[in-house]
Design a protein that fits this description.
The chain is α+β, with helices and mostly antiparallel strands. It starts with 5 loop residues before the first helix and ends in a 9-residue tail after the last helix.
Length: 443
């Protein structure tokens, strides 16, 4: 019997919930594919752990068409073979042998200037394949990047932040993938705060950072990934106002990656996801394990001390929130620019709010608590408070008594209108005189 290709066998195992069914109901195929794409896999020959929905769907139809043989990776017959015209191939090879130090771009320009190819028609990949096929590819010696082991002198000098892909749990009746967002103190290996979130966005990171500074004080430096979430303007602004530093791109996160491995081996491997009630239940279990087990277990990198003991050793040196504690919520609020409508309302995420009527037609900033998903107030561009917002109630407005302008306000408005018309008439007269046109009096 022929041995089954190991890659095909792996793909077949991924498709298990699909190929084991005799019949799928309408819409069930896409639902199962989405669930399969949320899982993590040990992919043969790859460091990745996730598989895209389109890839799983292609495997499914290949299996239905050709069985297990349809899942065997296809080898291209033209792999490594150049499709360039023979004359162009010879010219490229001759030019490279003449000067082996040439890179691909000068070869492109050389053949274009010689009239061998039209400008922009000879691709870099085509030259790369040809040179690789003949062993003429110039490989630059990599410049070694300097990395040295370092450590913070005291607790809260450096915090590391990163995200670990977690399990799939039930949230509001749906199966959702969750992500562990963590902040670790470098000197003590103590976890300042860690929480499973439904995403790895800037908002999730901000929530973990807020809890971390509440529990552990202020760090002097944040070492974070260079992903889009960590570069978000809201997170950058919080770091500037709260910590007086920017998030740094990491030179190495070996200590936090080691913590991830410990968490995966000692907590996630023992976790029975089927017995979880919800996301809060998962976080409660994780926090209990971190505080009662990880923080109190001697750490190999701390000369036998526990993370908690090492952190407490530096308590007198730790920067506390101090006067910032009273306005911590304010520091984590978001500002969203909105145009105020003529009826004194603004919109945010599909909800309408009323603002002071004198702001009608102006651009304002809504003060938003992103974690509670509430709009708290309105500010001008300078950050000065202009009042509070209230949810729009159009039915109540139908019975509300309108405020009418006083006689003094009406007089001021009329005078301003007359002044505006006078200015307009003067401008119109000057314009007509400049162009030699008669005015309304015939002059």
């Amino acid at each position: 019997m022929k041995t089954v290709d190991p890659v095909a066998l792996f793909r077949w195992s991924v498709l298990g919930p699909l190929v084991s069914r005799d019949r799928l109901e309408h819409g069930e195929l896409q639902r199962i594919i989405r669930e399969l794409a949320l899982r993590e896999y040990a992919i043969p020959g790859s460091r990745r752990c996730l598989i895209g929905e389109k890839t799983i769907e292609a495997w499914y139809y290949a299996f239905r068409r050709d069985g297990i043989d349809g899942l065997v990776p296809k080898v291209r017959n033209d792999r490594g073979v150049s499709k360039l015209p023979l004359a162009v191939q010879e010219a490229v090879l001759a030019a490279q042998r003449e000067n082996p130090k040439r890179s691909i771009r000068p070869l492109q320009h050389l053949l274009e200037r010689a009239g061998m190819v039209a400008r922009g028609t000879l691709s870099r990949s085509a030259i790369h394949r040809l040179l690789q096929q003949h062993g003429l590819l110039r490989v630059a010696a990599p410049v070694p990047e300097e990395h040295r082991r370092y450590g913070a002198e005291q607790a809260n000098a450096i915090w590391y932040g990163d995200v670990l892909h977690g399990p799939t749990v039930t949230v509001n009746g749906r199966r959702r993938k969750v992500y562990l967002v963590s902040l670790m103190d470098d000197a003590s290996r103590l976890i300042a705060h860690s929480a499973f979130c439904l995403g790895e966005t800037a908002l999730d990171i901000e929530g973990v950072l807020k809890q971390a500074v509440l529990k552990r004080g202020l760090p002097r430096k944040l070492v974070m990934d260079n992903g889009a979430a960590y570069r978000a303007s809201t997170l950058q602004g919080i770091c500037a106002r709260l910590i007086y530093c920017r998030p740094y791109a990491p030179e190495g996160k070996g200590k936090l990656e080691r913590w991830h491995r410990t968490f995966r081996d000692h907590f996630l491997s023992e976790l029975d996801v089927s017995r979880l009630d919800d996301l809060d239940d998962l976080n409660a279990r994780a926090w209990a394990w971190i505080e009662q087990v990880y923080h109190r277990r001697p750490h190999g990198g701390l000369d036998g001390q526990t993370p908690l003991e090492r952190y407490q050793q530096d308590l007198p040196k730790i920067r506390l929130l101090g006067h910032k504690a009273a306005r911590l919520d304010d520091l984590f609020q978001h500002r969203v620019a909105r145009k105020d409508r003529k009826d004194g309302t603004v919109s945010d995420q599909g909800r309408d709010f009323e603002v002071p009527l004198e702001l009608a037609g102006k651009t304002v900033q809504l003060v938003v608590d992103p974690h509670a998903e509430t709009v708290l107030g309105v500010e001008n561009a300078a950050g000065q408070s202009l009042g509070r917002t209230t949810p729009l109630d159009p039915i109540a407005n139908a019975y509300r008594r309108r405020r009418r302008p006083t006689p003094e306000e009406t007089a001021r408005s009329e005078n301003a209108a007359i002044s505006g018309r006078s200015s307009l008439n003067a401008v119109e007269l000057a314009y007509r005189q400049y162009h030699g046109q008669p005015d309304k009096e015939g002059r």
